[in-house]
Structure formats: structure tokens, C-alpha cells
Amino acid sequence: MNTLVKSGGAWMVSPSLAAAALRRIRVSGFATSSSSSSSPNWEGGVSLVQGASRGIGLEFVRQLLEKNEKGYVVATCRNPKDATSLSDLKNRFSERLVIQKLDVTDEATIEESAESVKDRYGSLNLLVNAAGILSIPGVLQPETTLYKVEKSSLMLAYEVNAVGPMLMMKHMWPLLKAGGGSGTEREVAVVANLSARVGSIGDNRLGGWHSYRASKTALNQLTKNVSVELGRRKDPVVCILLHPGTVDTDLSRPFQKNVPEGKLFTREYSVQKLLHIINNAKKQDNGKFFAWDGQEIPW
Ligand SMILES: NC(=O)c1ccc[n+]([C@@H]2O[C@H](COP(=O)([O-])OP(=O)(O)OC[C@H]3O[C@@H](n4cnc5c(N)ncnc54)[C@H](OP(=O)(O)O)[C@@H]3O)[C@@H](O)[C@H]2O)c1
């Protein structure tokens, strides 16, 4: 409980209240924060993009800010100081963009982010989980054969690509509320998890990439499971899985030479397509796995 306590004859704010206030200051980067009770009407909605330092996540932040001039965006990333493109956006949209430090492998940072969003805005209309790993030099290699499989790679891909978004949903769902589509009122709150077509079991004809594929398959099942639970709420949340196509980012760069002509999308194009799906999401889309063009992908 946040109460006044007596210490050495003087009344003081309880340690928990002081800690919460300090946390607000640290996370938001401002010395004041709007409480939910006194918050203005966040007319254009509040979106949170997790994994926003670069690639598709960064592009989501840019388009959400540019296309909805009344929208607010919380962008999270592991190392805000190194996220220079995100800082550039902060300079352009200082009033409507908040940057928070969040590592999906550290649940405390997720909890802290959720508390900060609650204090500042009271609710959230869109959650985009974009962070994902496919290869990390010397640490994680997409396996081309079974004998290259390492337990550490399987676990790491699962931790970032599947457990991470699950923990995000766990801590953010109480905040999710309908509203705030691109300039219009979306009918439902949306959770959009960036999956990949290679996570489809039905579509798996090539094999390989065991860690990445299986982690995305796990993400699909976890998201589907959550969609059933959240779909029962009075104010339903629509949880969808999105395949962005093959997009020109750091993640795909080492594998781009095999991409057929015209099939390597720009980040701008892919996110434009994905935002179209998100902004038109309906209750009946809950628990579905969509490609960038709106086609459903088999499980
Ligand atoms: N690009 C494609 O062709 C493609 C195709 C299918 C699916 N996808 C999916 O789309 C999503 C975005 O991919 P992308 O191409 O934009 O990748 P990217 O350019 O490599 O960016 C990956 C992002 O994930 C973040 N990240 C990695 N580990 C993290 C952690 N532990 N905690 C928080 N953030 C972490 C990175 O942050 P740092 O800067 O801190 O490393 C970076 O912001 C991924 O889920 C990917 O699987 C991409």
C-alpha cells in the first residue's frame, strides 16, 4: 500500500510510494508523469512497439507517428542510447514518442514498462511485438543440417522469439482497450506479434533453420492460446500473428541472395501492409496468422 508512515516522529511517504515515483521518473525520462486519473483524452490512441531500435519495429514507430498525428507511441528497445534512428524520431515527435528500455529476456524491464504506460496513459490500444532473432554471429546460426543443432541456439531463439512476446502479453493485457486506429476508432484493441511463414508446420517444405522455425511455431501456439483467453473479455482484444514477407533488414541481409526478384520488400512497404491489417482488425480475426497481403497462413 502507498501510505504515509511515521519515522522518527515525522510523517513520510512510504518506501513503496517513493519507489514507484522514482521508477516513473527513471522510465519516462521526465520529472513528471500524467496519472491515469488526470490523463487527457488520448484521442489518437496509444501504441507500444517492442523491438523498435531498427528494422521493422522502427518502421512501425515511424509510420504510426506520421500517419496518425494524434497518436502516441511508446517505443521499447534494449539500448536506447545506441538506437540513433529512434532518437531522430524522438527529436521530430518529442511530444508523442516515449522511448523505454526493455529487454524481452528480462521480465523486470517488461513489468517496469507496463507500469510506466499505466501511469502515463492509463491504457494501451495496440501492442506490436517486433523483436526477433534469426542469427547472431558466433552465437546463433540458422542450422542447415541436424548435426549443427545446438541446445543453446534452440533455447535462445525460444527465449527471445516466443517467451519474450508471451511475457509482453502477460504484463500488457490488463492495459489493452479498444480505440485509436490510424486516425479513426478501431473497434478492438490489437496485439500484433511478428511471426514468420517458416513457423508454419503445414507450409514447411524446405526444413532447416530448426531454432528459428520452432521458436516461431511456438509463438504461433502461444498467441493462439492467449487469443482464446482474451477473446472472452467484454472489451475483447484481437491477437494476430503477422508474416511481413521477406523484408530488407539486418535480419534477412545474410540470406537475401536467394530471394527472387521483386520479392524483397522495403520496410516501408511491408509495414504499410501490416498496418492495414492491424487497422482493419475485427473480432473474427482473433487468433489468426496473416501474411503481409492479408492472406491467412496455415498452421
Ligand atoms: N526481415 C524479414 O525478412 C523477416 C521475415 C519474417 C519475419 N520477420 C520477423 O519480423 C520481426 C522483425 O524483424 P527485423 O527484420 O526487423 O529484424 P532486425 O532488423 O534484425 O531487428 C531485430 C530487432 O529485435 C531486437 N531484439 C533482439 N533481441 C532482443 C531482446 N532480447 N530484447 C528486445 N529486443 C531485442 C533488436 O534490438 P537490438 O538493436 O538491441 O539488437 C532489433 O530491434 C522479427 O520478429 C522477425 O523474426 C522478419
Automatic annotation (TrEMBL):
It holds the Pfam family adh_short. InterPro entries: Fungal_SecMetab_SDRs, NAD(P)-bd_dom_sf, SDR_fam. Coiled coil: none annotated. SUPFAM superfamilies: NAD(P)-binding Rossmann-fold domains. Belongs to the short-chain dehydrogenases/reductases (SDR) family. PANTHER family: NAD(P)-BINDING ROSSMANN-FOLD SUPERFAMILY PROTEIN (PTHR43544:SF12), SHORT-CHAIN DEHYDROGENASE/REDUCTASE (PTHR43544). This is Uncharacterized protein LOC104731480 isoform X1. The gene is LOC104731480.
